[in-house]
Structures are given as C-alpha cells and as structure tokens.
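Reviewer 2 asked us to include a model.

Predict the structure of this chain.
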Amino acid sequence: MKSLKKSTGSSSGVSILGLLGVMFVGLKLTEVIAWSWCWVLLPVYGVLALVLGLGALALLAAGGLHGITKLKCK
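Predicted model (structure tokens):
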C-alpha cells in the first residue's frame, strides 16, 4: 500500500535565534540572569530586523528593476 503522505523536501523548525530567545526569557523569569529585558529580547529583535531588512531589499530590487526596464523602453 502506498503512503498518502508526500514529502516536500522542506523542514520547519525553530531557528537558533528563536531557541536563544526562549532560553533567555526562561532564564530571566527564573531570575538566573539579571539582564535588562532589552538584552534578553535581543534575539527576537534580530529576527525581526532580518525579516524587515530582507523585505526592504526585495522592495528596492523590485523597484530598481522596474525603473531599469522603463529606461530601456524609451
């Protein structure tokens, strides 16, 4: 009997920054570390900055390519 489940070849999981974020929050809440919340949440900010940065680059690239194609058509 054939398996109905197909493999897409991609895996979903938690990133290193996600694991660090969860670990730092746990250590802060259990008072093992006395860091400021800004430092504890830094891995979360890193992921957010990466996503926003890649999105901005994609928008710039799309806008730049659109501008180049306009110049070639004239």
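The CA atoms of residues 8 and 51 lie 23 Å apart. The chain has a mean pLDDT of 79. We have added this to the supplementary material.
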